[in-house]
Amino acid sequence: MIVSEAPGKVILFGEHSVVYGYPALAAAISLKTRAVLTETGSRVSVVKSIPLSSTWQLDEEASNDMKPIKRIIELLSEEFDKNLKSGIEITIESEIKPGSGLGSSASVAVAVTGAIIRYLGLDLDLDFVNKIAYEAEKIAHGTPSGIDNTIATYGGLLKFIKKESGPVVEKVSVDKNFPILLVDTGLGRSTRVAVANVRKLFERYREITEHIFRTIGEIAESVWREISSGRIDFKTIGDLMNINHGLLNAIGVSNSKIEEIINIARKNGALGAKITGAGLGGYVVILPPEDKISTLYKILKDKYKKVYLTSIAKTGLRVYESTTS
Ligand code: PMV
Fold first, then answer.
1. Which of 65, 81, 148, 175 is labelled catalytic?
2. What is the residue-averaged pLDDT of the chain?
């Protein structure tokens, strides 16, 4: 069987201001999605998603959840003139909660694309995988920026700038262990609503919000310069996360639950803590000090239950053959 794994992501700096053309930094995390492809020889291929508790037999109508995968299968069948409608089973398992802002749909798209490409005996061309996964993301999210599928494909840390001519992406590998704590606020979130709220504020207070976006962009740029020159000073990165969070709060995407988690984290030694992604719910991202990672993890876990200790993942898509399940 073929095992294909792709990571989730966190936005470390620059959410929201990225919509207005300023840079954002996103990192692959060690939480991942796995697509396992087996040759069954059956008349009808099957896709099973364990996180979504959903199964799709390819001779039936795909549910909305399965439509992005349907798109991948259509595109790859057309491109390589192959029949994927029979003979295979793809099972999706994931450590990433769907709809949480950690790039779960993109990691599924990349993992499934990688598995099928290997099954077809083709070389794993990452640019091609990324392109296909982006098409699946469009089915899932309308007009996504493409940051999630890019991270899930290549891994590491990316700088992402949205341009009319298409996104400009730079990648850097992070060699030092870069720990990340994620705390689930337990509150539902909608990227669409958060982005629309910020847009309203922007329209009403254009000059003021523009200054905020520009400052967030400068923060992202300055962290990028540090990291890409091989320096990682966690104290500085933490301070800048805190400043970035203050600015996100200023544009209205925080709330009392998020602030409570952030205050507890900082009180217990976090170097930095902020919203990651759209805000109003979802996750809080925390940079723990190197000597207190497990203490801080435990304090947060006792209080919030859904706490994940992860780190920046160097690799993106990884595909291999396995004889064991
Ligand atoms: O929470 P997510 O992963 O959907 O990220 C949203 C990031 C925003 O900057 C708020 C929106 C966007 O399209 O970049």
1. 148
2. 95
Residue with CA nearest ligand 1 atom 11: 16
Question: What mean pLDDT do residues 262-285 have?
Answer: 97
| Alpha carbon distance 8, 123 (integer Å) | 23
Query: What would the pLDDT profile of 112-148 be if each residue is shown by its tens digit?
Result: 999 999 999 999 999 999 999 999 999 988 878 888 9
**How far are the Cα atoms of 119, 222, 284 from residue 30, in angstroms, in the given order?**
25, 25, 16
**Pair 120, 75: CB distance under 8 Å:** no
Q: Is 218 exposed, middle or buried (0-12, 13-18, 19+ CB in 10 A)?
A: middle
Question: Is 65 a residue of the active site?
Answer: no
Give 98 Cα–ligand 1 centroid separation in angstroms: 15
Ligand 1, atom 13, residue with closest C-alpha: 145
167-176, 233-242, 285-294: the lowest-pLDDT one: 167-176
CB-count burial class (<10 Å; 0-12, 13-18, 19+) for 215: middle
